[in-house]
Design brief:
The protein is mostly helical and about 425 residues long. It has one domain (about 1-415). It has helices at about 1-55, 65-75, 115-145, 150-160, 160-165, 170-190, 195-210, 220-225, 235-260, 275-280, 290-300, 340-355, 375-390, 395-415; strands at about 90, 95, 305, 310-315. The strands form two sheets. The chain has a two-stranded antiparallel sheet with strand order 1-2. Strands 3-4 form a two-stranded antiparallel ribbon. Strand 3 and strand 4 (about 310-315) form a beta hairpin. It is globular and about 65 Å long. The chain starts with a helix and ends with a helix. About 45% of the residues are buried.
């Protein structure tokens, strides 16, 4: 009996320990959720406020993507603008806007509400930008160190990259970058979570319907699934590859319906309203001759100075990533020894290559090298991995500088 009572006396103490652990986990989860809520409020306030500031001073107009959505709702792919309009191709008696398919789709809910058409461009870009910026927090939590460093990393993604600049301008060209970043974030969060092949493949594939260069990132991710080991690795690879293949097929069909060929995107034959850009394109869409100029823009192009506010003048062709997001340099600290780092570096490299050989510089007209945004999600994750190894005063300073430089983009847009 005494022995039995002794066991009974020990059981409550053991049971109490088992209960306390889940309570602590729930409390930690509550704190994390509170942090996510505050993060969401900050993102909405800053993105929304900046968008309202730009929208309030802009001339009301209906974005070409809204026209495309209206026509798409009626079974047409043409934009309905006059032949010779900038960035359009006229063929078969119809004029088509040269744009990827994904930026058109968010405008479809506005089709029945004509009074909202002028505002749709601001609402769509800001809403998707807010969602992408909010995802910077779970992305940082998945890959970065715990504690306050998480919020530093999330701040870099949301406010220290050109995601902020692109989301607040109500421009369908810039919307493509926002969508691509949003979906790439989804793929990267899934990669660190349940790693379901079809989710990663679908997210990257749909991202490529906004920015086709992102499709190249599917190569290292697909190889990682194939080389992951286990008897079902081929099946995992197929579950990844099929959604990627479907989205590539959709892009090809979209091109075929407009221009008669799955390989004709329209970018090489469109009307260009900027003489300098049209002359540069005579060398082809992609050429080795563009490499040195693009490298100079990406790495070394500075800002000009003028005597009135705002004093620093960005180059319309783009300027150095070191003058927009210098904190991306932290990614170097991630190294290349880990498999995930290898996949991310390979993705960043493959996506960068066509950008450097493209005739369009950093994305005319632009603040910063906006085309490089296709690469930024992979670098942000590498920054988070590097922060697990070391995160100190220098890293915080680089993030603060990134926020300041990106913030100047808003100042330039508002007061130029």
């Amino acid at each position: 009996m005494i022995h039995h009572c002794g066991v009974g006396n020990h059981e409550p103490r053991g049971h109490a320990v088992n209960i306390g652990e889940p309570i602590r986990h729930r409390a930690a989860a509550l704190r994390a959720d509170r942090g996510a809520l505050l993060w969401a409020v900050a993102v909405v306030a800053i993105y929304g406020g900046a968008t309202l500031a730009l929208a309030s001073s802009a001339t009301p107009r209906v974005d070409p993507a809204m026209h495309l959505a209206v026509n798409l709702a009626h079974g047409r792919l043409d934009v309905g603008l006059s032949p010779g309009t900038n960035d359009t191709v006229t063929t078969g008696g119809r004029t088509y806007q040269v744009v990827s398919p994904l930026p058109i789709l968010p405008y479809l809910p506005f089709v029945p509400f004509r009074p909202l058409w002028p505002a749709s461009r601001w609402i769509v870009s800001a809403s998707l930008g807010i969602l992408a910026a909010w995802l910077c927090l779970p992305l940082a939590r998945r890959y970065g160190p715990p504690g306050r460093a998480t919020y530093w990393l999330a701040t870099l993604g949301a406010f220290g990259t050109l995601l902020f600049d692109q989301a607040i301008q109500g421009n369908f060209y810039f919307l493509a970058h926002v969508e691509a970043m949003l979906l790439t974030f989804v793929a990267l969060i899934e990669w660190r979570g349940r790693r379901r092949p079809w989710v990663v493949g679908l997210a990257l594939g749909v991202a490529s319907l906004a920015r086709p260069t992102v499709a190249l990132a599917a190569i290292p991710f697909g190889l990682a699934f194939l080389m992951s080991g286990g008897p079902d690795r081929v099946w995992r690879f197929l579950r990844f590859a099929v959604p990627v293949g479907v989205t590539v097929a959709i892009a090809g069909l979209y091109n075929t319906l407009r221009f008669g060929s799955p390989l004709e995107s329209g970018y090489g034959i469109s009307t260009l309203g900027f003489t300098a850009l049209a002359q540069r394109r005579t060398g082809g869409l992609f050429s080795l001759s563009y490499l040195s100029g693009n490298l100079q823009l990406l790495l070394a192009q500075g800002l000009d100075f003028r005597s009135r506010f705002p004093y620093l003048v960005p180059n319309n062709n783009g300027h150095s990533i070191l003058l927009t997001s210098p904190a991306l340099l932290i990614a170097v600290g991630a190294g290349i020894r880990r498999r995930t780092a290898q996949v991310l570096w390979a993705s960043a490299f493959l996506v960068t290559v066509p950008l450097l050989f493209y005739y369009g510089g950093g994305g005319f007209i632009t603040y910063g090298y906006r085309y490089f945004l296709d690469v930024v999600p992979f670098l942000l994750v590498l920054v988070a991995i590097a922060a697990r190894i070391h995160f100190g005063a220098l890293e915080k300073l680089l993030i603060l500088l990134s926020v300041v430089f990106v913030g100047y983009g808003f100042v330039w847009l508002r007061f130029q």
